[in-house]
Specification:
The chain is mainly alpha-helical. Helices cover 74% and strands 2% of the residues. Strand 2 and strand 3 form a beta hairpin.
Length: 456
C-alpha cells in the first residue's frame, strides 16, 4: 500500500481528472419552510458550463481542505492533548488493569457488549465526533487483553457505525430523511432495530475471530510492528488502583455524561465537545497531582502524537473540495437515478442502497446526503414500486456503512489518527466486514420490498 498521504493525493488527482470527463451539472436547491432543510428540486437538473479543476487547484485543494476541516483538526488536537493529560495520571491504565483482572476468562463478552453500547449511541444521538474520546480507552483495553489497536478501535467505532446505520432514533439522519420523504418521524422502527442488531452480530463475530487469532499469535495482527512498539511503552500489569485514580476516573465519567447530555440538548458538537474535554483533562490532571507546567507538557505531547492524523483529515477533505469545484456530484446522482429507473422494484431497492453506498464518498455528511438524494429518490421509488420507507432505509444504511472505510469520512480518519492505525492497514482489515454488511444490506432491501415496508 502507498503511504496514506500519497494515496489521498492520488485520489485528489483522479477526481480532478474526472472533472474534465464527467459533464458538469446542478440541481436547484430550495428551502423547505416546514423542515428548515435545503432540499433538491428533483426535476431541476441541468447541464452547466464545464468547470474542470486546473492542475494548480489540485495543490490549492489541500490547504482549502485543511481550512474547511479546521474544526475537526483542532478537535483532534484538543482531544489528543486532553487525553495526554488524563493518560499521564495513570488512572486509565490502573482502572483497566483492575477491570481485566475481574473479567478473566470472560474477555469475549467485552467485544459484543461494547459494540452494543456504542451502537445505541449511534442509533439515538448519531454518535460520531464523541467516539474520538472513547477510542484511546478502547485501544488500551484491547491491548490489556492481549489484542491490538484495531480491535480497540473497532469495538468503539464499528459499534457506533452499526447503530448509525440502523438509526432507529437518529434525528440527524433518519429524522431528516423521513421529514423529506413525508413519513412519520421515526416510523418503521422495528425493522431498523433488527438491522442494527444484525450489524452488531456480524461485527461481533468478525472482530472476535480476528482478536482471538491475534491473542494466540501476535504476529497475526495487521499492525504487529506498531503493537510491538506500543508494548514497550505501555505497562498495564501490576498497577495499583489508588483513591486518586478513582477520583480522576470519576471526573472523566462525569465529563462523558455531560457530553452525552449536551449532544441530546443541541450543544455544538465541535466547540462544546472540545471545551468539555479540555476542562476534564485539566481537572483530572490537577487531581492526579500534576503541576501546571507538567500538565502543559503532557497536553503538548498528546496533541503532537496526533499531528499525522490531523493532517490526514484535511487532506481527505481536499477530495470533496475538488468534487464541488468540478460540479460533477449532481451529474453522478442524475445518471444513477436514470439507471435505476429501468430496474424491477426489488433490484431498484437494492440498487438505491448500492448507489447510496458509493455516493457517501462524494457527500460524507449524513444530513447533507439526505437533503440531496431523498427528494430525488422518494418520487423515483413511487414510480418503481419501492416504498418511501425503503428509500429512506437504503439511504440510511448506505450512508452509515461506508463511513467506516471511505477516506472522505472525517470521523474515520480522525479516529484512525487517535488510534495511530495506518489507513491502508485499516482498509485491509475492514473491507471483508464491509462486504458482509453490504450483503446483509441487500437482503434487507429485498425483504423490505417483499413486505411492502411501510410507515409503521
Amino acid at each position: 500500500m502507498p503511504h496514506t498521504f500519497v494515496l489521498l493525493f492520488l485520489i485528489i488527482i483522479v477526481v480532478a481528472i474526472a472533472t474534465y470527463v464527467i459533464p458538469a451539472g446542478v440541481y436547484e436547491k430550495v428551502m423547505n419552510p416546514e423542515t428548515g432543510v435545503e432540499e433538491v428540486d428533483s426535476e431541476s437538473y441541468k447541464r452547466v458550463e464545464q468547470t474542470p479543476v486546473p492542475p494548480a487547484d489540485i495543490f490549492r485543494a489541500v490547504p482549502r481542505g485543511m481550512g474547511e476541516a479546521g474544526w475537526i483538526i483542532f478537535l483532534i488536537f484538543i482531544i489528543g492533548g486532553s487525553f495526554g493529560m488524563i493518560n499521564a495520571t495513570g488512572a486509565i491504565q490502573a482502572g483497566i488493569s483492575k477491570m481485566v483482572l475481574s473479567l478473566q476468562d470472560k474477555e469475549k463478552l467485552i467485544i459484543p457488549l461494547t459494540l452494543l453500547v456504542f451502537s445505541l449511541g449511534g442509533a439515538t444521538f448519531g454518535m460520531a465526533e464523541s467516539t474520538l474520546i472513547f477510542i484511546p480507552m478502547g485501544v488500551i483495553l484491547a491491548r490489556s487483553l492481549k489484542m491490538d489497536a484495531i480491535t480497540g478501535m473497532a469495538m468503539v467505532f464499528i459499534g457506533a457505525m452499526a447503530g448509525f446505520s440502523g438509526g432507529f432514533l437518529n434525528p440527524f439522519t433518519v429524522g431528516v430523511a423521513q421529514e423529506l420523504a413525508g413519513l412519520p418521524l421515526f416510523s418503521g422502527i422495528v425493522l431498523r432495530i433488527i438491522v442494527q442488531l444484525v450489524l452488531v452480530t456480524i461485527a461481533s463475530i468478525y472482530i472476535i475471530r480476528y482478536s482471538s487469532r491475534v491473542k494466540k499469535d501476535p504476529s497475526y495482527s495487521l499492525i504487529a510492528d506498531i503493537e510491538r512498539e506500543a508494548l514497550l511503552n505501555e505497562k498495564i500489569d501490576d498497577v495499583v488502583f489508588t483513591a486518586r485514580h478513582k477520583l480522576v476516573l470519576l471526573v472523566v465519567g462525569l465529563g462523558f455524561g455531560l457530553i452525552i447530555y449536551g449532544v441530546f440538548n443541541g450543544w455544538s458538537t465541535s466547540t462544546d465537545l472540545a471545551a468539555i474535554f479540555l476542562a476534564v483533562g485539566i481537572v483530572a490532571a490537577l487531581i492526579g497531582g500534576h503541576s501546571p507546567n507538567t500538565l502543559a507538557e503532557n497536553f503538548i505531547n498528546g496533541a503532537r502524537d496526533l499531528t499525522y492524523g490531523a493532517l490526514i483529515v484535511g487532506l481527505a477533505r481536499g477530495i470533496v473540495v475538488v468534487l464541488q469545484d468540478g460540479q460533477i456530484i449532481d451529474t453522478i446522482i442524475y445518471a444513477s437515478a436514470n439507471l435505476l429507473s429501468w430496474l424491477p422494484s426489488y433490484l431498484s431497492a437494492s440498487g438505491m442502497f448500492v448507489f447510496q453506498l458509493f455516493l457517501n464518498f462524494f457527500i460524507p455528511s449524513g444530513s447533507g446526503q439526505a437533503a440531496t438524494t431523498i427528494p430525488i429518490m422518494a418520487p423515483l421509488g413511487d414510480l418503481l414500486g419501492v416504498s418511501r420507507q425503503s428509500v429512506v432505509l437504503a439511504y440510511q444504511m448506505g450512508d452509515g456503512f461506508t463511513n467506516a472505510i471511505f477516506p472522505t469520512s472525517a470521523i474515520l480518519m480522525a479516529g484512525l489518527s487517535v488510534a495511530k492505525i495506518p489507513y491502508g492497514k485499516w482498509v485491509r482489515w475492514v473491507l471483508p466486514l464491509m462486504i458482509w454488511w453490504a450483503i446483509a444490506g441487500i437482503i434487507v432491501m429485498i425483504i423490505s420490498v417483499l413486505i411492502n415496508y411501510g410507515p409503521f
